[in-house]
């Protein structure tokens, strides 16, 4: 999660009232040194993440990379900046570097409802393509893609 963003650029210490909040989802591809950030003002749901993945693939095929180190670098890059607009967040993020490369930054404007669930059958089909990483199964996966 990116956190609160004060769209009117009013900030008194840390107690400001944001007009919007951006949620962040990221993908890091170590083989090509590419990093992709996807933001939404809506809910960061599984549908949002799937839309981000669909935006990325099939152009890029790679395995999931733990993104947490990139988040740390991004927070350092923000360096206390007042993230007071969507343009400020996206623009600042585009200037960050990870392993010498800038991330591809996108804002997905679709709205996402919470509580949407797949049927067991549909989820089982998806689970066949997901390899959960031992010890951190809830947070990190390898997504296996097959060309048909």
Description of the structure:
The protein has 148 residues and is of the alpha+beta class. The protein has one domain (3-111). Helix content is 26%, strand content 20%. It has a four-stranded mixed sheet with strand order 1-2-3-4, sandwiched between helices. The N and C termini lie far apart (35 Å). 14% of the residues are buried. The model is unreliable at 1-10 and 59-65 (pLDDT under 50).
Q: Which terms summarize this structure?
A:
globular, 26% helix, two-stranded antiparallel ribbon, disordered N terminus, 148 residues, alpha+beta, 6 strands, single chain
Uncertain runs with pLDDT below 50, 5 residues or more? 1-10, 59-65
Number of domains: 1
How does the major sheet shape up?
A: 4 strands, mixed
Helix content: 25-40%
Evaluate the radius of gyration. Answer: 17 Å
First-to-last CA distance: 35 Å
Secondary-structure blueprint of this entry?
Elements: E1 3-5, E2 20-29, E3 34-40, H1 46-56, H2 68-78, H3 86-94, E4 104-107, H4 120-127, E5 130-132, E6 141-143
Write a concise synopsis of the structure shown.
The protein is of the alpha+beta class and 148 residues long.
């Amino acid at each position: 999660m990116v956190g609160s963003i004060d769209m009117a650029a009013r900030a008194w210490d840390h107690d400001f009232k944001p007009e919007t909040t951006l949620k962040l989802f990221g993908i890091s591809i170590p083989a090509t040194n590419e990093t992709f950030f996807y933001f939404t003002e809506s809910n960061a749901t599984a549908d949002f993440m799937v839309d981000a993945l669909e935006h990325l693939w099939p152009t890029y095929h790679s395995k999931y990379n733990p993104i947490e180190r990139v988040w740390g670098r991004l927070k350092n890059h923000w360096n206390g900046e007042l993230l007071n607009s969507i343009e400020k967040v996206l623009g600042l993020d585009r200037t960050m570097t990870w392993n010498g490369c800038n991330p591809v930054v996108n804002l997905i404007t679709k709205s996402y409802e919470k509580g949407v669930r797949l049927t067991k059958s549909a989820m089982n089909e998806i689970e066949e393509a997901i390899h959960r990483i031992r010890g951190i199964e809830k947070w990190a996966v390898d997504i296996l893609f097959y060309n048909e």
